Amino acid sequence: MKTRPALTGSAAIVAIAAIALAGCSPSSDGSTVELFDPADLVLATDPGSNPVDKVTWGLFTEPDTIDPVRAGNDPAYITIGNMCDTLLRVQPDFSIEPGLATSAEWVDELTFVIELRDDVEFWDGVPLTSADVAYSMRRQADPESQSVNTSAYESVESITATGDHEVTVAFVTPDSQFRNSLAGPAGYVFQQAFTETVGEEAIGTASGGIMCTGPFELEAWTPGDSITMVANDAYWDGAPLVKELELSIITSDSTITSALLAGDLDGAFDVPSASADNFLASDVGTLFVGPSTASMSFGPTTAEGPAADPRVREALDLVIDKEAFVKAVLNGYGAPQRTFTPPFAWEGLEASAIYGAAYEELPDNTNADLERAQQMIEEADLDDTELVLAIVAGEEQSLQSATIIQAAAAQLGLTIEISQLPGPEFGELFYIDEAREGIDFVATTGYLDTPGVLLYASYFAQTDGLFNWSEYDNSEADALLAQARTETDPTKSAEYFTQSQALFAPDRLQVSLASQYTRVFLNDELTGVTTSFAYIASPWALHLGAK
Amino acid sequence: MLLQGLLFVARRVLGLVVTVAVASIAIFAVLAIAPGDPAAALAGGSVPNPATLAAIREQFRLDEPIVVRYLGWLGDVLTGDFGRSFVYRADVADLIAPRIGTTLLLVAYSAAIILIVGIGSGVLAALGGRIADRAVTAVASVAMGAPTFVVAIFLIALFAVTLDWFPVFGSGVGFWDSVHHLTLPAVAMSFAYLAFVSRLTRSAVRTELYSEHVDTARSRGIRPRHYLMSDVLRNATPQVLAVSGITIASLFAATAVAEQAFGVNGIGSLMVEAAARQDLPVVQLLSLFMVVAFVVINTLVDIANALIDPRTVAKGSNA
Asked: Which of residues 361-400 of A touch B (CB under 8 A)?
């Protein structure tokens, strides 16, 4: 689960006003917040047609590294996506197309073969070889390299360069998610010689840099200030129109907003939804809203007490009006979500029709049903009605969510204490058992950087799942999930998954609060940027240019 | 007299060293026992693999006892090795070096505004008659109550977005461009301090103005311009200087808010980022840097005061 950076600054003031209004939803100026119409979602703006000397893009946080193997947060992904290529490429609609690989397919149950393009060069002019790809994948799979992408390679036995432009991956057990993973951060490729020369200590740092094949070449990383890249004119998929792309690091929400509105910045991802009215009123640029895999939810952290009881979680789900939630917390830029796997994660997949039909079958949790919720609580016959909900400190969206959950629980006679934990302490909840003592629920915002449905299910619903702290045990659902994992035929895998989902989803291993939309502000002189969440691991500025 | 002076300086410098040493222990201990595992921060925002965490802990010596880590850190700092950032995996020195110039310029700029406008308006309020006094007092009261981040939003909206006189963010390249970029942050930072220095200067000058020897001078019919400079302002100087010294020293901490608000790439914004991400080596060194800056500036002020008024040497000032 990846968590979002904290929002700070003036948005906090707006947020405090919004909390008080949760439930109904007039904004502070008295007008009514509307739910954003899904029909107006934009995947990408039309490709640019004219060259631009320089584009300055806002980054809310500085990446801690641009090593594709260690990078684990939004700003790093936004930076790396334009510099390094993945083996397969995620499209703005979250479908998967060839990237550095012309094909990547299962040839038998345990063997996966990757055929590479033969016309790719690194920025330094050295041709890409299968040895570089095998090296990259091995480094991605190796915990010793401090990789954050090891789970994608969990079932892999070996990775071998089997030809000049061919890499063969042998598996211990088949893994239906593996192909999808190659279109995400786990599929980034970099040069072996450069990585080894710079060394594990310095690779991906401001001074060490990286060597990749992407449309933009790293020019300079001035710590705290900016990361500059220049167009790779020899790029195999066509040279970009933007000659120089500068990512400017600005950590204050209000400053980045002012800079965008003043035209000092050409664009930014994930702009504060609280300032949406200012962006919409701007004559400098346009606010684009796109689909995303980001979602907000809360789930149990204990196997004891009310939180571990599915009826209590269902009651909490039933008592929260999701449309009111989206209006209050996301300023309308989101939608209710029926289960923890967000629809955008599967909408671009081959078997999307199967996933879609199954999603529609899940109980609709949009509207509150207090009566039924109270009935469920009565059935649960609780001894203990005092619960603790942990959130990360300093993120007002989390605090707003928690406040809404608290108010909803009060309607059911449950008292929820909100525990705000600083970032690192909050992070410990996820992998140190003792850190969860005395806590019943944890609320998070997470996102999936790669298409596919198995990740959250394997965390929350599987008996031995990493985050299955309520010790949920549904052997039938488990067996179906395992089959979905090992079945490499996309249609069959989707069928197993959706059958499993039908079993575990009603138990609300996460109470899903909302899907979040992306919000991208772009100067009106420019066009051609990816506006869906696909920007997270793809060259989002490849087609950026002047109108 | 000279010996006494040297002893005074030596005493002050010794005090400085002891203060910094004690502060270094406190900073290290407080941060080391703070809850949260720094290795988690290093593992990115994703689910940490235990083997990855173990590799990080080993690389950054996180498993060793705190005393060993402190002594190792102290030895490294004294020999010029400032350690490596947990988050950026870069040498702390490399993170600080490109930022320090910006922060020093910002502090100097802000200090200049505080001293010139603050002392000037304070003297004006004390000597300029009732209307000037009232006006300065009213403006100072408002300025004193305005938080830096609010002033920042106001300044950006007016001077950067609406009038477009100054850039919204950034640190600038080269001296004049930097001055241009840092004007709004420096003004925002000065506000509260400026009011404080102004009020203090006013009361210091007033106190001197009605002191016995000035009263005597006045009663003898000596005209104000003869005693203003030599008696009133000179006698008010040590007090004003002491307060200004503390003010400027604390400006280093104030850069945290101002740099963040104006997207200035300096020590202050680095401190905020590092603290939020539990980047201990960076927070430790910057905390130490701020203590050193505070103590050094105060020591310099003491010595300057001693030069202006040698009696403080005998008294042993504690400012």
From this structure: 394
Write out pLDDT tens, residues A47-84.
999 999 999 999 998 898 999 999 888 899 999 999 99
A308 to chain B, closest Cα gap in Å: 22
| Contact call for residues A543 and A48 (beta carbons, < 8 A) | yes
* Residue B137 CB-density burial (10 A; 0-12 exposed, 13-18 middle, 19+ buried): middle
Q: List the one residue out of A505, A465, A466 whose CA is nearest residue A482.
A: A465
DSSP chain B: -HHHHHHHHHHHHHHHHHHHHHHHHHHHHHHHHSSS-HHHHHTTTSPPPHHHHHHHHHHTTTTS-HHHHHHHHHHHHHTT---B-TTT-SBHHHHHHHHHHHHHHHHHHHHHHIIIIIIHHHHHHHHSHHHHHHHHHHHHHHHHHS-HHHHHHHHIIIIIIIS-SS-SS---SSHHHHHHHHHHHHHHHHHHHHHHHHHHHHHHHHHHHTSHHHHHHHHTT--HHHHIIIIIIHHHHHHHHHHHHHHHHHHHHHHHHHHHHTT--SHHHHHHHHHHTT-HHHHHHHHHHHHHHHHHHHHHHHHHHHHH-THHHHHT---
Decide which of A276 and A526 is more confident: A526
Residue B300 predicted with pLDDT over 50: yes
Residue type, A240: P
pLDDT at A24: 40
Q: How far apart are CA B50 and CA B59, in angstroms?
A: 14
**A207 CB within 8 Å of a chain B CB:** yes
Residue entry with tokens 């595992």:
B37
- Sheet with A295-300, edge to edge strand ranges: A334-335, A511-516, A295-300, A441-446, A386-392, A415-421
> Nearest-CA residue of chain B relative to A223?
B95
Dist CA B191 CA B177 (whole Å): 22
Average pLDDT over residues A139-156: 91
Residue carrying structure tokens 């402190």: B70
**Min Cα–Cα distance to chain A from B298, Å:** 30
Alpha carbon of A40 to those of A22, A291, A346, A514: distances in Å? 25, 10, 20, 18
- Dihedral through CA B235, CA B237, CA B242, CA B246, nearest 10? 150
Chain B residues with CB-CB distance to A394 below 8 A: 276
For residue A10, the model assigns a pLDDT of: 33
Is B309's Cβ below 8 Å from some Cβ in A? Answer: no
Instruction: Check if the beta carbon of residue B240 is closer than 8 Å to that of residue A233.
Output: no
B44: nearest CB among A70, A256, A259: A70
What pLDDT score was predicted for residue A22? 37
Determine contact: A162 vs chain B, CB below 8 A. no
**End-to-end alpha carbon distance in chain B:** 21
CB B178 within 8 A of CB B244: no
- Using alpha carbons only, what angle is made at residue A52 by residues A46 and A56, rounded to the nearest 5 degrees? 90
pTM value?
Answer: 0.83
Asked whether the beta carbons of residue B168 and residue A422 sit closer than 8 angstroms, the reply is no
The answer to whether residues A340 and A295 touch, using CB atoms and an 8 Å cutoff, is yes
Cβ–Cβ gap A424/B43 under 8 Å: no
Task: Establish if B12 touches chain A: CB-CB under 8 angstroms.
Answer: no
User: 10 Å Cβ neighbour count for A181?
Assistant: 24
Q: What ipTM score was computed for the predicted complex, to two decimals? A: 0.70
